[in-house]
Structures are given as C-alpha cells and as structure tokens.
Amino acid sequence: MSNLNRGPDGLDLKSKVGQLFMCGFDGHEPADGIRRLIEDYGLGGVIYFRRNLKDAVQVASLTKALQERAAVPLLVSIDQEGGMVVRLEEGVTVMPGAMAIGAAGDAELAREAAMRSGAELRALGVNMNFAPCLDVNNNPRNPVIGVRSYGENPQKVAKLGTAVVLGYREGGIAAVAKHFPGHGDTAADSHHALPVVPHGRDRLDAVELVPFRAAIAAGVDAIMTAHVVFPAYEPDGVPATLSKRILTGGAARAARL
Is this model's pTM higher than 0.85 or not? Predict the structure, then answer.
C-alpha cells in the first residue's frame, strides 16, 4: 500500500486489521503458518496452550523467536490462573487457584501471588495473562467455574480479584478480567453449549457486575467476555461475546458506574 494509506503510526490498513487478532498455533517452535501471520499480516498477538510449552527455557526461546518476526511487539498471552488452570508447570511457580486464595481471604497474599507469577511469566516474554476469573461462584452445578472463583460473595470476589489485577500489573504483565458480565450462575459450560443467565438487571448489578466494576475502577488492562446469553441486556438471544448491547451498551455502562 502507498504511504497515503498509512496512519501516523506507520501501519497500513492490513496491519491495522492484523493487530486486532490473537491466534494460537501448533508446536514448540514458530511454524510457517504463525510466521506468515506475523510477518505478512501484522498479527497483534499469540496465545500459548499446553501444546506449545515444555518448560521455562523453551518458552523464553519461543517468545524471542516470535517477537523477532513482529514489526509491532506482540501480545503474548497465556491462561495461567493458578490451581487447576495452568498452561506451564515446568520451571515456574504454580500458584494456588482462586478458591484456595479465597479461602485464605487475604488481599495482600492474593496480590503477592499474582505479582510473583506475573514476574516469572514476564521473564519468559509473556506479557498478558487471561486472569483473574471474576465470576461469582453462586451455582453449585456450574461445570466450568467452581474452584476458579474466589467465592460466592460478590464483594469478596471484587476485593481479591482487584488485588490480583494490581499484582499482575506490579509483576509487569497485563491482567484480563473474565468472564464478563459473569459466568458463575450457569449450569452449562460455554465451551460446549450456550448457557443463559436469566436474571434481571437489578440482580446482575448487585451480584455479577460487582467484581467487574471494581476491576474496571482499578484500571484492569483488558476484559474477556462470556459466551453466555443475558436476556436482561440482549433480548435477541445474542451471546455477550457478539452483543454490542452488552459490550458497549447497558452492561458495560453499568460496570463502569
């Protein structure tokens, strides 16, 4: 593209579009597919899964190889919540999961655990963690949240979750609060089905949105949405992931109050 199509940041339109995407890939080294996405399309970020990771030394090498191919530094992300949800175990400290942190009930310990985990990840070149989970654990039949939540009390989840957000920031990585506007009160796993949270706005405002409101007030870097239907905000049955009404409308406004 000509310079006329470039913005003040020097990126052409194709690269600007590429910056909006984050992709996974196979293998322990950069394969042709992910290299092409980075070099030819200006990919904005990558996400590591267990299939990419062996140990800390290998992860550092992989991250270096990926970043060397990027004109704009990549977001290098991972799901390293602690407890049962971790992608990397060899060569790093696996912190307790959210339920264990919630049982301790100490915001300072929550912050320190996140800070130390974040610092270790940052040393490997990982700069974004898809944590903390700010879902309120208010449905015992929930097959996907459970021990990933700090507890059943919204204020407690808000307090500990915000401490974790601040800890990751102190450790040098971006925190991602999830799963907005709340995946706690479902009896289905959104990886396999499309759950519905049927509550009205007053209930959502008093329970589900409380931790997200606190995290936003604390300046959380990013938010992951829930692939869940919230009829109170989206009467057409569109899941939150795809709903403008939720992501920029009523739910988002309520969470920023």
Answer: yes
